[in-house]
Amino acid sequence: MTERAMSAAMSERRSVGFRRSLYPSEIRVLTCLADGETRDNVALELGVSRTSVNHALAGAFAALGVPSLVGAYRALGWLAVPA
What we know:
By secondary structure, this protein is mainly α. Helix content is 61%, strand content 0%. The protein contains five helices and no strands. It has helices spanning 3-11, 24-34, 39-46, 50-64, 69-76. The chain starts with a helix and ends in a 7-residue tail after the last helix.
């Protein structure tokens, strides 16, 4: 992911309509997964365990109030697919 894309992703960290703001680690995990990386590759890229990736993903889902990765991307406006 480019620095420009990461900056854009970080700017999505807001609380309007969400239970809480996304943490930077949650945004990094979501952006890596959006780039097509597997959870194992995300863990290697970020230098954390796969469990940490799973916890960040679960935290993002809770913060956005969605049950899935597709729901998270829709909530962030990163995916425009009919429901």
